[in-house]
Amino acid sequence: MTCHDIQIETAKAQQFLDTVRQQRADTNAAHVLGFLGDFGIGNVMEGDAAEASGLKRLQDLHDLSVQKGCSTAAS
Predict the structure, then answer these.
(1) pTM of this prediction?
(2) 72 vs 46: CA distance, rounded Å
(3) Which of 1, 44, 52, 69 has its CA 20 to 30 A from that of 62?
(4) Which of 23-48 are b and which e, b meaning 16 or more Cβ less than 10 Å from the residue's Cβ?
(5) Domain boundaries along the sequence of the chain
(6) Using an 8 Å Cβ cutoff, are 20 and 47 in contact?
(7) What is residue 73's DSSP assignment?
(8) Cβ contacts of residue 66 below 8 Å, gap of 6+?
(9) Residues 6+ apart with CB under 8 A from 15
């Protein structure tokens, strides 16, 4: 992976993480009905797993960027 590739993948991972966080913050009728069906436990666990996955991807990309000596000034 080149530094440019790492930058692109970092942006994708950040967008994924932002989307997960936004979806978790939104409350609508479907979430309420889902909560009534399974007490929301499945949704919370899936959200936690998705957020953890996104954070791990960002950390891995950051580590790779440091290893390759990529500039962090470019965004």
Answers:
(1) 0.71
(2) 31
(3) 44
(4) ebeeeeeeeeeeeeeeeeeebeeeee
(5) 3-68
(6) yes
(7) S
(8) none
(9) none
